[in-house]
């Protein structure tokens, strides 16, 4: 029998807070599962928003990503089924402490690459939900990743910091992970009625010389409702414009892998 292909590992990162990293991981993950792909989501944020938004109480989690990055547990010990055909490596608030401990370890950038190496045989796609920082866990995510998606609010102000992220990506590619490919910028919370949003969107791709995934994800209140239900918008509002946009973006991501 032919050997199964290894999972693509996609980091979803932007050190700016609140640009829909977590929402995008949950929604793209759900869209991939709808397409029959085997999906693993990894919560790399001490806020544990992804864990919470998938209906899991971070306070009740016993083995989490914390133990994995500290080398105290294997991936299988922390895996949870998050419904919708998705597996999750949950985070807890203690991840901040674990990150501080990891900071002093040699080879820290490679902790996720090596921790996820075996799991790659069991999934088609592994999505990494980064915290809003360029800290060691985000660096480790970029080092483990084969692809990067940068969610960005379609507003001028949120552009600051993207240059810094892309400089970091350049360094990571040079020093740590030649395989890292920027899949694209994902415009989120897009208000197509505003001329300003449209102009920003047109400017994005040329300014950073990167692909811009499409369609842009529309701003809709449905997204705020989904986490409370412990389900992504693909289930809570199946036929909404937001869910449709994430499904289309997911097809584009698959085509780029
Ligand atoms: N398309 C959208 N329309 C409206 N609200 C949205 C949309 N996408 C996300 N949101 C809301 O914006 C807020 C921030 O989203 P999210 O938590 O996904 O961002 P984040 O980048 O992961 O944040 P952090 O940097 O804190 O990790 C949430 O309340 C979410 O429900
Ligand atoms: Mg988040």
What descriptive keywords fit this protein?
257 residues, seven-stranded mixed sheet, binds magnesium ion, binds adenosine-5'-triphosphate, 12 helices, Rossmann fold, alpha/beta
Average pLDDT confidence is 91
> What's the helix count?
12
Helical proportion, percent range: 40-55%
CATH class annotation: Alpha Beta
Distance between the termini: 23 Å
Class of secondary structure makeup: alpha/beta
The third-level CATH topology is Rossmann fold
Query: What is the multimeric organization of the chains shown?
Result: single chain
Report on this model:
There is one protein chain. By secondary structure, this protein is an alpha/beta fold. It has a single domain (about 10-255), classed as Rossmann fold (3-Layer(aba) Sandwich). It contains twelve helices and seven strands. The chain has helices at about 20-35, 50-55, 65-70, 75-80, 95-100, 110-115, 135-145, 160-175, 195-210, 220-230, 235, 240-255; strands at about 10, 40-45, 80, 85-90, 125-130, 145-155, 180-190. The chain has a seven-stranded mixed sheet, with helices on both faces. A hairpin with a 4-residue loop joins strand 3 and strand 4 (about 85-90). Helix 1 (about 20-35) packs across helix 12. The longest helix has 16 residues, at about 240-255. It is globular and about 50 Å long. The protein starts with 7 loop residues before the first strand and ends with a helix.
């Amino acid at each position: 029998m032919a050997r199964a292909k290894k999972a693509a590992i996609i980091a979803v990162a932007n050190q700016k807070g609140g640009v829909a990293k977590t929402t995008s991981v949950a929604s793209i993950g759900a869209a991939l599962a709808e397409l029959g792909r085997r999906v693993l989501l990894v919560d790399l944020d001490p806020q544990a928003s992804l864990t919470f938004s998938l209906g899991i109480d971070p306070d009740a989690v016993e083995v989490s990503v914390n133990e994995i990055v500290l080398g105290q547990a294997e991936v299988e010990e922390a895996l949870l089924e998050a419904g919708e055909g998705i597996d999750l490596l949950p985070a807890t608030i203690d991840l901040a402490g674990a990150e501080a401990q990891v900071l002093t370890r040699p080879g820290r950038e490679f902790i996720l690459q090596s921790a996820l190496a075996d799991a790659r045989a069991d999934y088609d796609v592994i999505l990494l939900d980064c915290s809003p920082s360029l800290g060691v866990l985000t660096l480790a995510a970029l080092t483990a990743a084969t692809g990067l998606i940068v969610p960005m609010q379609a507003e001028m102000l949120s552009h600051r910091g993207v240059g810094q992220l892309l400089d970091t990506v350049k360094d990571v590619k040079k020093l740590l992970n030649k395989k890292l490919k920027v899949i694209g910028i994902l415009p989120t919370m897009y208000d197509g009625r505003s001329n300003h949003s449209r102009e920003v969107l047109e400017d994005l791709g040329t300014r950073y010389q990167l692909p811009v995934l499409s369609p842009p994800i529309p701003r809709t209140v449905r997204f705020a409702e989904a986490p409370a239900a412990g389900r992504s918008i693909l289930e809570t509002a199946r036929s909404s414009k937001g869910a449709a946009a994430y499904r289309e973006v997911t097809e584009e991501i698959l085509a780029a892998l």
